[in-house]
Design a protein that fits this description.
five-stranded mixed sheet, Nucleotidyltransferase, domain 5, alpha/beta, homodimer, 11 helices
């Protein structure tokens, strides 16, 4: 059976594993990214992570058919280049694909990390049975990836699926990390959940469990605490969670009225919020989307957790090999 | 050379022409749709419009290789069915494709009208040199069509490219004709241009050319009058036009951060507003989109006018024939 290495480069760690042709991953390995040590060192760490992943699978490089690498943007996907990602400072114009390809002498695919995660979920996760799927990743930011008929929608300028930076408020919108106003990310990321809660607590007239938590030293508010408080019945937290579900429903509806996929999948740390949160998103979508897609579009949580990135990167390597052999 | 008939069914008229393999249309013909006469009669009128188009080109049906029909939604594109379009009441569940195919014994394609217009512009209009293109049609409503690598993005439930019904205001948005709040169409259609002007005039402190126009009997305000007043230097009209350009820039940016096409094209009656309006849209996009797509995505006016629909319908017939012959 053919085997691939998938490498997911994040701002904090790089994670890789050998993935077989059925999408099953061997033991994953990870190494700190330490971008401040420079991009030359970064490229070496990528190669080392790949080697360790192969060793962890009790294989040698000769057993590997192709490699896939996923990195955060900004990037030029077609050119295989990292440009200047905010999470990988001070890297700039790093020829990732060509470097990896040269070091290992193997077909190497290069992809945006959220796109790769979407492709992983599409291959063997939540979307494995459908022809088209959109993934929203909910973490400190909101990422996105779009897969239609087995193809990642990369876009002409590597900006396909930047769903966190579609605007849901043309006026008076919240400030986004990207510097613009009104982006979905400014409303629906874990960061925004915390910020909106801080604001609500500051102006709250009724007591909240979270007010107490906040006065305890050294316990900064987290999205997790807020979702837990909502489950425990805290009214303020419940309103924040409900608003978050609504913002995500607006984001989902906008992509349903643009791409109209079979399925919309939510992944990332925030889905630890559980099934009630997912149901709230579904209910809001039913209220605001056109009747047919509202009724028929499946809305689900992702299934691969943080493995989606390297599994999807491996899937990109696999697809590269397949299309080369056509 | 192969020839096709493209038929564009609108709420008021049906328009058709023979289109040759280079996208050149022969003389177009049109017949009133009169949907109130019922859908059986509607199907007959479609066939009659096709026959007259062939006659107008001095050809016979034997000269035609395929037919394409475009209709307004709602519809089931894959099934070739009109469902219950608001513009074609009281039609319901009309098997357009199968009927036309049976009557003429020719391969028949069926497509949404805005998608067809986009495919027409992609084939021989504004987008003829690019691999991917998004069209916004600006008329009484705002329609959309998305073409990627020679394929119409129909969507899983025939709702691909419903760009007028993506939301640009999650809260306190304007009421849209679809019954929802905050849709792009509620801000950027010709209808909205007039409504927003009426509202501005009602609360205006400074005089406007348009206040006078309004007090003249039997001259209801039109988008055209408002764009003309803006060109003539009227401050109120200029603000309305500028806001409209901004709303469209938000819509364009959202689709650029989702699809990331080579080109965004604006078509429909409202582009009579002229080049200054287009430049305003471009300038706002440069302000609010990510730097690379902001810099590189071409933003243009459509070139085929109201012929885009039947030319695009013919293109769908042509594509059907080509894929059948593969």
């Amino acid at each position: 059976m053919l085997r691939y290495v998938g490498l997911d480069v994040g701002g904090t760690t790089m994670k890789a594993a050998v993935v077989d042709d059925t999408g099953h991953p061997a033991t994953a390995v990870s190494i700190p990214t330490e971008p401040h040590l420079g991009q030359e060192r970064g490229l070496e760490t990528m190669c080392e992570t790949i080697r360790r992943a192969v060793a962890a699978a009790n294989l040698t490089m000769g057993d590997i058919a192709a490699i896939g690498v996923a990195t955060p943007g900004t990037m030029d996907i077609a050119a295989g280049l990292i440009l200047d990602p905010p999470n990988l400072k001070p890297w700039r114009d790093v020829p990732v694909r060509d470097h990896i390809e040269k070091v290992f002498g193997l077909p190497t695919a290069f992809q945006n990390d959220a796109n790769a995660a979407a492709f992983g979920e599409y291959w063997v996760g939540a979307g494995r049975a459908v022809p088209s799927m959109v993934l929203f990743t909910l973490g400190t930011g909101v990422g996105g990836g779009i897969i239609i008929d087995d193809h990642v929608l990369e876009g002409r300028h590597s900006h396909g699926g930047e769903l966190g930076h579609t605007r849901i408020a043309w006026k008076g919108g919240r400030l986004c990390g990207c510097g613009q106003l009104g982006c979905l990310e400014a409303y629906a990321s874990a960061t925004s959940v915390v910020q909106r809660t801080e604001e609500a607590l500051a102006s709250a007239k009724t007591p909240s469990i979270l007010s107490e938590a906040r006065t305890t030293p050294n316990t900064p508010l987290t999205a997790r605490m807020i979702f837990d408080a909502a489950k425990a019945g805290d009214a303020l937290a419940q309103e924040i969670v409900r608003d978050t579900a609504y913002f995500l429903a607006v984001g989902a509806t906008n992509v349903m009225h643009t791409i109209d996929p079979d399925m919309v999948v939510f992944g990332g740390g925030m889905i630890a919020a559980g099934d009630e949160f997912l149901q709230q998103i579904r209910d809001f979508v039913k209220e605001i989307a056109f009747p047919v897609p509202a009724e028929r579009t499946e809305i689900r949580y992702a299934q691969l957790g943080s493995d989606a990135g390297f599994i999807g990167a491996a899937a990109c390597g696999r697809q590269l090999l397949k299309s080369a052999n056509k």
